[in-house]
Amino acid sequence: MDLQTAKGIAMALEDETAALVPSENVGDQSQLQMTYLLGCANDTLAWPGRTTVTLVGDVDAEAMIDVIASAWEQKDGVVVERRKTRQGAPRVDMTGVQGDFYSASIWAPGTELQITSFSPCFELEGGTKPGMKY
User: Fold this and answer.
1) Are strands 112-118 and 79-84 parallel, antiparallel or unpaired?
2) CB 6 within 8 A of CB 47
3) Between 61-73 and 3-18, two packed helices, what is the crossing angle to 10 degrees?
4) Cα distance between residue 60 and residue 64, in whole Å
5) Position 131 pLDDT exceeds 80
6) What local confidence, expressed as pLDDT, does residue 5 receive?
């Protein structure tokens, strides 16, 4: 797997997850386009991403995370774990079949949904260096 494929997988799942938020509850949405690569297994790397959805209106945080968890549970071979943040807000984590990892949680006292991702591991292709943004 190369960098662009791994990054594309992570960003697509972030987009898919953000699309689960009812449009009337979306005030703004932003997605990290470039970031520094992180170390992964066996001298490979992962692309870490994040999408932030600013929530508006009457939002039931527990119900929103339940919808996301249920959607992730429909994916073959993934492991889904419902949890709480250190602040007690609802959170769900998913480990994909390619070693990729995703988390969705409510932040900023119920006003943000943050979706983080760590792409499947990949090897650097020619011309790319770990210390650069991609």
Assistant:
1) unpaired
2) yes
3) 130
4) 6
5) no
6) 96
So what's the pLDDT on residue 42?
A: 85
- Please write down the HEC assignment for all residues of the chain: CCHHHHHHHHHHHHHHHHCCCCHHHEEEEEECCCCECEECHHHCEECEEEEEEEECCCCCHHHHHHHHHHHHHCCCCCEEEEEECCCCCEEEEEECCCCCEEEEEEECCCCEEEEEEECCCECCCCCCCCCCEC
Q: What number is the average pLDDT over the span 79-102? A: 94
Structure tokens at 111: 């006003």
pLDDT for residue 11 is more than 80:
yes
Q: Spell 25-52 as b/e; 16+ CB within 10 A means b.
A: bbeebeebeeeebeebeeebbbbbbebb
